[in-house]
Amino acid sequence: MQPETQLLKNLGFPDLRFHAAFNHFDFRRGGRRILVIGPMGSGKTEYSARVWRDSLVALRKSGGVAALTSTAGADRRQVFFIRSLLDRARFPQYPPDALPYRNGFERCGRNIADIRDSFELEAILARRPEVGTWIIDEASFYEERLAYVVANDSQARGTVFIFPTLILNFRRELFNATSRLLLDTATDLFPLTAFCEHPDCLEDSLYTYRYYLVDGEECPALYFDPLIIVGGDQTKTDPREPNYCTRCDAHHYLPGKEYTFLILKPLGEKAAGGDLAPLRRELACLSGDKERSDWPATWTAAGSRISSATP
After folding, report:
1. pLDDT tens-digit series, residues 90-148
2. 141 and 222 inside one domain
3. Residues 6+ apart with CB under 8 A from 158
4. pTM for the complete prediction?
5. Cβ contact 32:161 at 8 Å
6. Is 21 helix (H, G, I), strand (E, B) or coil?
7. Which end of the chain, C or N, has fewer beta carbons within 10 A?
8. Among 148, 145, 195, 186, which Cα is nearest to 165's?
9. Could you tell me which residues come within 8 angstroms of residue 175 by beta carbon, excluding any fewer than 6 positions away?
10. Angle at the Cα of 222 (from 283 to 301), degrees rounded to 5?
11. The domain spanning residue 131 has which CATH number?
C-alpha cells in the first residue's frame, strides 16, 4: 500500500486511486531538456501552447521573480517557439506568428521562427540571449547535431528546451539517429497517448500508422515502404499518396516485415553484386502476380491486398 493511501485510510477516507495532475510549468528549474512524445493527435503541440500561456502569467509577476527563473541573463519565463520551414505551408489559415494546434492557436509575436537546421538555431540563440525556454517542434526532423547544440546551451546557460516530437516512425522503430540522441541527452520525458483511430476501438494509442486508400479500401503500408514520405492532416484518396493516423497495438498493421528480411534483403544483396534478375523477377511478381512471388509464405499481418502505391 502506498504511504499516501495508508495515511488517508487511517484518517477514515475510502480507498482511492490517485492520478497525477497536469501542473503549471515550473520556470524555476533550469538546465532541462524535456521530450514530449506521442503519436499524432496526442496533444504534443497543445502541451507547448500551455507552456506559452503559463509564461504569460509568470511574466506578470513582480520583478523579484526574475531571480528565481533566470540564469546567466536568460529568463525561463521568456518562451520562444521554433518550427520547421516545412510547416509554413501546413497552416495557411493561421497568422504567420501563430503556434497552431488542434482547435486553436497562440500568437507568439516576435518569439517564433522557422529554421532549416541546427546552424540556424545557433544563430537565433545568439540573437536572443534573454530567452530561457525554447520549444523546438518536431525536433527529430532535424540533423543529429541539433541534440548537442541544445545540450551545450542548456548546460552552459541553464536554458530549458522542450521537444514535442515523434520518436517512432510508422514501423514502430526509432525515427532516426536524431531521435536516439534526443533520448540520450534528455533530462525529462512526458509520454502522451491518443485514442486509437480504428472505428471500433477506444484503446490508448502510442503509434503512428501509415496506410493508403485503394478504391476506398484501407491498405496498410508495407514494412519496406520508404521511411520518409511527407503527409498531412487531410485524407488522401490517391492510392499513391499515404495517409496517417494513430493506432493501438491490435490495429497497427505492418505487413511484410519478415518478407523484407527473409526475401528482399538476400535478393538485394545479389543485385548489389550484379545479379539483378532475381530481384526484378520478384518485384514484377509482387506488382502483378502476387501468387507467383514469395510473398504468401511470409504474410502474417491482417489484410490480403497490397496497395498499388507500392512496387
Report:
1. 677 788 888 888 778 889 999 999 999 999 999 999 999 999 999 999 999 999 999 99
2. no
3. 30, 31, 71, 72, 74, 76, 132
4. 0.83
5. yes
6. coil
7. N
8. 186
9. 140, 166, 167, 168, 169
10. 115
11. 3.40.50.300
